[in-house]
């Protein structure tokens, strides 16, 4: 039996309270006007309620339902027999629920578009999608306004899905500068973080403090040894279970939005569910190899795919240390797209600078123009994805 929690939006209650308050104010004003009918005009004017400034209706985001649940995973059991007389220290014959995904979701009042599932990348959790380091809206709010429900995944062994069947080790070795450079935001020179020319990444010490504090370790990796291997099958199976659960709740297939390392298990997810409507891959580590099991599953299900890459990619960016590495990784999307479209599938490759959208790094969904990119993705969805 599926068990999950639901939280009904407070907006309905707030609106009801506001409505009741409005009725009370109107009644009081009417009574006061009646009692002061013979009073001077200035006295009557003093009873008029002050004008209340309200947000335009189109800016209000109304949530019909929200909640959180876990999906997929497994249960492991230790050897021996549980000793209840020594319950606090005994671990023999005990179970652990591990390797699942954790999903936070919101469904807007007018959910007339397909659900969107967001899968984060390496060193991150769903928090990276939800906000920006300078406090602006993240993509989930933007797509909610467009009519999509949003389902934000913490992949197995990360964030709120930290229970793991594999014992990892943490490290306290500092690495902010490494990832900052790899993410093509800029680099670190003369004791200060720099920004690539024309960067759309929000700037300021407070912003960087918030950005770096989004990072979170993988509980199943040997971080102390520099091991960055992630079990793509474990992640893919859990994400597939989440997508199947979403289908059970909504009756709709999901658009899977992946980022970076999340792109690798994202491709594999199609092997374990047939409820993926499309995949939007934001700078995935690599595209699936042609004729691999993931490639075959994607093609058999005719899943539309689009790749999005930002700026500062290519050998011409000699002052961007990670530019050539990202050029190599992006070239795999060219190979995939050529084969996939030749075989009858839909695959598009979007390099944002070629669209006139410049200055974007690996975290384009946190950049100052993240709304422009969200609109571009929505236009692709409307053109290529069947509801």
Please describe the topology of this protein.
Elements: E1 5-8, H1 11-35, H2 41-45, E2 63-71, E3 74-77, E4 95-98, E5 101-108, E6 116-119, H3 127-130, H4 139-145, E7 150-154, H5 176-182, E8 188-189, E9 192-193, H6 205-212, H7 232-250, E10 254-259, H8 263-269, E11 276-282, H9 293-300, E12 305-309, H10 323-342, E13 347-351, H11 370-384
Compute the separation of the termini in Å. 29 Å
Helix proportion of residues, in percent?
Answer: 25-40%
Rounded radius of gyration (Å): 25 Å
Quote the beta fraction. Answer: 15-25%
Would you give an account of this structure?
This protein is an alpha/beta fold and 387 residues long. It has helices at 11-35, 41-45, 127-130, 139-145, 176-182, 205-212, 232-250, 263-269, 293-300, 323-342, 370-384; strands at residues 5-8, 63-71, 74-77, 95-98, 101-108, 116-119, 150-154, 188-189, 192-193, 254-259, 276-282, 305-309, 347-351. Helices cover 32% and strands 17% of the residues. The protein has a nine-stranded mixed sheet, sandwiched between helices. A two-stranded antiparallel ribbon has the order 3-4. Strands 8-9 form a two-stranded antiparallel sheet. Helix 7 (232-250) packs across helix 8 (263-269). The chain starts with a strand and ends with a helix. Residues 1-46 have low confidence and may be disordered.
């Amino acid at each position: 039996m599926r068990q999950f929690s639901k939280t009904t939006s407070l907006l309905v209650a707030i609106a009801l309270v506001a409505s009741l308050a409005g009725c009370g104010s109107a009644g009081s004003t009417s009574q006061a006007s009646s009692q002061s009918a013979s009073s001077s005009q200035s006295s009557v004017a003093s009873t008029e309620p002050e004008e209340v400034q309200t947000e335009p209706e189109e800016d209000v985001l109304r949530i019909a339902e929200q909640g959180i649940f876990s999906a997929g995973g497994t249960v492991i059991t230790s050897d021996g027999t549980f000793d209840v007389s020594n319950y606090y220290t005994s671990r023999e014959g005990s179970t652990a629920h591990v390797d699942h995904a954790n999903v936070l979701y919101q469904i807007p009042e007018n959910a007339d578009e397909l659900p969107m599932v967001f899968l984060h990348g390496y060193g991150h959790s769903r928090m990276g999608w939800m906000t920006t380091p300078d406090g602006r809206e993240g993509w989930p709010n933007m797509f909610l306004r467009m009519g999509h429900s949003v389902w934000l995944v913490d992949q197995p062994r990360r964030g709120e899905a930290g229970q793991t069947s594999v014992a990892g080790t943490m490290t306290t070795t500092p690495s902010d500068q490494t990832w900052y450079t790899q993410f093509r935001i800029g680099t670190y020179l003369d004791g200060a973080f720099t920004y690539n020319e024309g960067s759309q990444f929000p700037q300021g010490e407070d912003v960087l403090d918030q950005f770096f504090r989004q990072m979170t370790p993988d509980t199943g990796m040997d971080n102390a040894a520099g091991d960055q291997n992630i079990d793509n099958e474990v992640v893919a199976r859990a994400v597939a279970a989440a997508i199947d659960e979403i289908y059970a709740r909504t009756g709709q297939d999901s658009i899977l939005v992946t980022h970076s390392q999340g792109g690798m298990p994202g491709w594999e997810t199609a092997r374990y569910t047939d409820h993926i409507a499309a995949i939007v891959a934001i700078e995935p580590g690599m595209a699936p190899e042609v004729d691999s099991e993931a490639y075959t599953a994607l093609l058999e299900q005719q899943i539309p795919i689009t790749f999005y890459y930002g700026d500062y990619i290519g050998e011409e960016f000699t002052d961007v240390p990670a530019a050539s590495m990202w050029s190599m990784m992006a070239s795999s999307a060219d190979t995939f797209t050529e084969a996939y479209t030749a075989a009858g599938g839909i695959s598009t490759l979007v390099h944002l600078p070629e669209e006139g959208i410049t200055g974007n790094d690996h975290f384009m969904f946190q950049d100052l123009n993240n709304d422009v990119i969200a609109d571009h993705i929505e236009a692709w969805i409307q053109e290529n994805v069947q509801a």
